[in-house]
Records
---
Amino acid sequence: MIAESLSKRFGDFTAVDQLSLRIGRGEVMGFIGPNGAGKSTTIRMLCGLIPPSGGRATVAGFDVGRESQRVREHIGYMSQKFSLYSDLTVGENLRFFAGIYRVPTKELGPRMRYAVSMAGLEGQQDTLVGTLAGGWKQRLALGCAILHRPPVLFLDEPTSGVEPEARRRFWDLIHDLAAEGVTTLVSTHYMDEAEYCNRIALIDRGRLVAIGSPGELRERGLGGALYELACRPLGAAVEALQGQSGVLEAAIFGDRMHVVADPAMLGLPALVERLRAGGIEVDAAGPAPPSLEDVFVHLVARGRDRRITS
């Protein structure tokens, strides 16, 4: 899958701004960004559902602008909104989508059995989909999306609202498909899910901010030293540091505060002293390794005036 300077404009608003990326066969690419960053618009263009305003892209060897129908025949798509029919059974949904995807009659039985097995729904072909728990529904939706054995799979926040254990099992299925050579682009706002991807593309305001493996992105660092502090009250502590000399970023992480500081201007002892001088109680403080969430926040905040292609 290749996108080169892909853009989408709606009137005066630019939703996707010259985005370029390449995704290899069998690769799981995470698509990460805040709401309104342009993730879903990009996926819809790559699926051939809406035409790009500029640039070009090929998916499964077909041009998304000139061969959109051929693109749609060679992809699987699953959205964050449950797309199956709740008033139909498991088997009826599978047969319906097999008809849409023109699965040959002689292959229908084996492919339905594979989808049912993958979803863990053996013996429940006659169960109404509306009665299934969220995790079962999502796995069934994934099974429906790959009935025609597409080489490329688009998943638009597929685990939104699904419990953590079900999300982990869903990702196991994604990697099983990747092992079979299926290329997958998956958007998510869960940072722990981003860790499961081979590479991650960070997008903000329609622009690609950074791209790389989770380890590569963490190694880029935060432009300063990261400190973790247990202090009270947290909100007041963040406010006390924002805009202060030597402080690059300050944010609440759970019951702690993360501070990125320029070590040449503000070391940890001076940071603690500054907080205590402002009436903040500091119970513990020390250096911390950057998490992917730390890096994400930093790169999005620092990269809004920069375009990166890969």
---
Amino acid sequence: MKDKILGCYLVPYINKVKQFKKAVVIIDGFAGCGIYGDKSEGSPIIICKILESYNKKGIKAIGIFIDSDPGCFKELEKNIKYFKDKGIAITEFADFREIVPEIIKVAENSPTFFYIDPFGIAGLEFRHLENIFEKVNRSSTEVLVNFNYRVFYREIKAHPELVRDVMDGEYYKEILKDKTLSNDQKEKKILEKYKDLYRKYFNFVGSCPVMYKDEQDAKYHLIFATSHFDGLRLMNDIMGNVYREFYTKGRLFDTTPPEKRRDLKSLRETVINLMREIGITNRENIKKILVPKSFMRYKEGDYNTLISKLIKARKVYSKTGRSRINDQTPISLTKFPQEPKK
């Protein structure tokens, strides 16, 4: 799931930031070997193949692949040698945390996408990430990070200082002590608190639970942070599609959890209630409010289709009087006054 999400998103990301006319940089902070034991492609190979396709079009894009495990790094060097020889990939045998100053030098002048996928939570100490976020150009920087709640929970007793540093505080203790909350509720609250750390630096933050086989609990959560709504709306569709595919592909029945199913009846009520509250608006504004709140549950096209149907049913009115509208067309629950004929 996570590698598919990464691969699907990098193409529209590069398409967007290439307008800055600067080299695009993808940083894989915990790259691993590049190829899994079952011979499937890991993130370095996925990234390099995408970067190669852009370099062939004359768009400068490079990948920086960091790993501190000697065995993994040796395999990584071998597996992406072809791309290194072409100048597409750079490898660094280093601890992600220790190489932060060098990362900042690269990222502060280029559109940069960070893929931060450690094995566990060591390496996610937030002060290191914060050092990066404070200095890079966040208008062209985006982040995809793996937050492993299971490891977080195990490490509370084994390595409490590490957990405190990762979470940038000990606020999680009160949540875990709350006997009125179920384990699922505790996980969701702690995940939201952790995402709040990224919200200090980025306008939009969403997350996707990554499942393992038929287990009902998330193996970990992929957290995405961006300063642009275009990024969020794209990732909303990509994560939602990959997540739903996990619960439907090769299965006799759709086993998607109810809270993640695309219930358009519920969406209809939500949209109408929102329009009652804010008055004259447009599709863009509705999506900017609702996509972050219902991240992954609905596709962007669901909002477009629903509003067109509401206009056709005369439950919503567009200023143009047409049901086919764009994101900027004013819409309202009441009719717009007709402009006098000239």
---
Amino acid sequence: MNRVTDSSIHINSIDAFLPDEMAQRAEVIGVKKAKLAFGTMFLLAVLAGAFIALGSVFSTTVTAGAAGNLPFGVTKLLGGLTFSLGLILVVVAGAELFTGNNLIVMALANGKITIRELLRCWWIVFAGNFVGSIATVAIVYLSGQWMQGSGVIGQNALAIASTKCQFTFLQAITLGVLCNALVCLAIWLCYSARSTTDKILSVILPITAFVAAGFEHCVANMYLIPIGIFIKTFAPARFWEMIGKSSGDYPALTWDNFLIANLFPVTLGNIFGGSVMVALVYWTIYLRNPLVEKG
């Protein structure tokens, strides 16, 4: 069986890479990601934050006004399918996403990078994702897109953001664990891909599943909660008249709740879900204790 190395990949086959080959690809890619120059890594991370935000805009728009008009599960399914745009852009266009980069732990566990290199990568990418997300929040708010449909998009954004700010600490962590297990599985499946179509199909169902199930993604929340805060803080009186509510109807929607009650515990959960439940498990199976015959 041909094996994956830095310089040799099954380029003559059309079959998907097998799981043991996927593990080796994940390790090689992880090393490359961890050793990117600061400027390159940061800019790619800004792009990823913007891409995930665009998926969030798509999802928020499509599900606006659906409550009471469609079954709950159908609404969540539509939200997940449309949100998949974000990770499709990340994996096909090329960008650095904090949650997906939890798979770099496979390279760390095999001694190919140091803990310092891993943490350097994580903080740069996390910061870049935040910048890209907040920049998108500002642009979307200034565009007035959330005012469309007589304010129904903005009302949906407020409801989503407010809900996310009301989880208990344990809820936020566990929802984050479940989310990034699925996100990293989506990235893991992409390592089997040989074409753009393969990558897109690999991403759609795991990402749709995490959104439909209501799991929590720290980078998505860098857009979804701040856009709600922006609307609550700066929306004109005409908007509140259109939706029949006031800013006082969203007391949980604050920067403190965003950063402390949501982003911090969700990030911890995301790290565990991606690094331990996916990266370390597959490292143990295919790199530390190979279960496939070598030859």
---
Amino acid sequence: MRTYPDGVLERVQAIELEMLVAFDKVCEEQGLTYAIDGGTCLGAVRHGGFIPWDDDVDLGMPLPDFLKLAEIASDVLPEGMSFHWSRTDEGFSPMFGKLYKDGTRFVEDDFAATGANECIFLDVFPYVEIEEGAEGIGRLRRTQTIQKLLYLQGNGEPSILESLSPRWLFALGFRAAHGVLGAVSSRERLERRFWKACGDVHGTKIWANPTAAKPFPFADGIMFPPSRIKFEGVEVNAPGSPKDFLRIVFGDYMSMPAPENRHTHAPCVLDFGDGVNVMEGR
């Protein structure tokens, strides 16, 4: 597993914290709703900030706010920050967005394989309203499947989990699926299927991230409307009920994982803007 040189992870986190503070200010000024998500929320509650080995920031936004951000980002984000997603960047497979620190490079293996550029980033996930019960869960399963197809359509050699064995067989299967998807379906068609699967549900106040590897439905008040929480000494938006959110996503969220399960996104290329890849040889 790739590791960071001494002091480098802390530099990444410091830049991401600056970006988070700037993003929080933009959302307040523009009337946009967001909440820290996933491991960022876990870090805020369990550690008072970043999980010590974490190297990204997760944010969630109701889909209307996400789309408004995408529309106005170039006008309202501070200099040196930009918003990117599949409609702005060729080879961008996720159906969520990323806020980039312009001038840096943070290239993960999967992104390198597609030729897409990537900078030090914050992830921005769209949240949609779904129906209660089996119908809503079925909707999430469809969006999850389509997101996986989009990844495979864009990259025939994705990173393979250590738990998948034999790895050569999975690699062969991924390459075959990539070829088939390229022949039978365009990215545009898969994207249309994704947004159709998200539906046009309003008023249920049951929120879910349709891009998540394991999407969870959150009842009214758990994710949105948000609350405020301390993160690395500054106040940011958190899920409305952070502890309920974390119980749903992580279960026993206060227990620390074993050292071998403390994963990062350590990239193959990390350049803080001076043209030097600090990950060379890692």
